[in-house]
User: What shape does this take?
Amino acid sequence: MPPNSNDTSTGVLFESDVDVGLTKDLTNLRTTDGSKLELVWLNIVLFVILHVSSVYGVWLLFTEATWTTVLLFAPALVITILGVSGGAHRLWAHRTFKANTPLKLIFLFLNTLAFQDAVYYWARDHRVHHKYTETDADPYNSQRGWFFAHIGWLCCRKHPEVVEKGKQIDLSDLEADPLVMFQKKYYLWLMPVICFVLPTALPMYLWGESLNTSWHVMALLRWCVSLNLIWMVNSSAHMFGMKPYDKNICPVDQGFLISFHVGEGYHNYHHVFPWDYKSAELGPCSQDATTKFIDFFAYLGWAYDLKSVSLDMVRQRALRTGDGSHPVWGWGDKDQKSEDIGDTTITHQRKEA
Ligand SMILES: [Zn+2]
Ligand SMILES: [Zn+2]
Assistant: This one.
């Protein structure tokens, strides 16, 4: 039996899970069994066409596009990402908050605009990713390298372990959600209309953009950039960055993604506390677009039961298993610099007996 056939999970999925990573030796599980990749050439050809077309889209954006298209490109990109990070990821895969029907419909629309497969399949793969991180059962196993974790996993057949563990993961909550099942059932009709036809037609009819620019910029380039940013969470955010919360796992807090402020950059935090609706610790630096979007709908009462982790719990965990890169939490933090301690003024001191 290859090492990764082990049934032991490596990661935390919900609040009810314990600190799995702390109590188990993950060394064996992280070794891939070296099975040969079976390439899916249709996907490879389509991704090559998409990326070449998107480079042309960048050129059009700077040379031919109307000002309205230029101004609306970034907002269109952000709402596309929200459909995955806020909808498929935080609402459905991790159940970090609840949403009423109108908000679920908004998330389903945005999720279809992002075309990363139906929420049902995305959430299944993502739950397996968290539960069996860095093993062959992980759909985007970063132990196979950056390229595999980024896009390679979509260019080949799934490892048998991914299929096997995917069948075992509990999806009963998604199956009980009629809106999720509606999107799954009609995905092949909904996706082409929402992801490609609408973003091409609306700029043409609303502000007179050309068909060529609408197609290459608002349909293809928007989709391509959103894909690559989200794929970076699986690739770069499992490789290049700090581990303030748990140094024993591969996911990292990824500076490049954090700088975009769209969410999911604090990936070390997210793999330790995946049930936190913010996917990050509290504070001004963790205020990303997805969190603000959920906060806004919570203010309206459309999003509710938002789950968070207490600062105290975060600090204790960072002290216990972090790599020391966590910001100083206060007086007495082991990472507090001696010169800072020396320069601190303490008034009203009580004389020790
Ligand atoms: Zn991850
Ligand atoms: Zn996640």
Q: What stands out?
A: Residues 67-93 form the longest helix (27 residues). The CA atoms of residues 327 and 335 lie 8 Å apart. Strands lie at 98-99, 303-304.
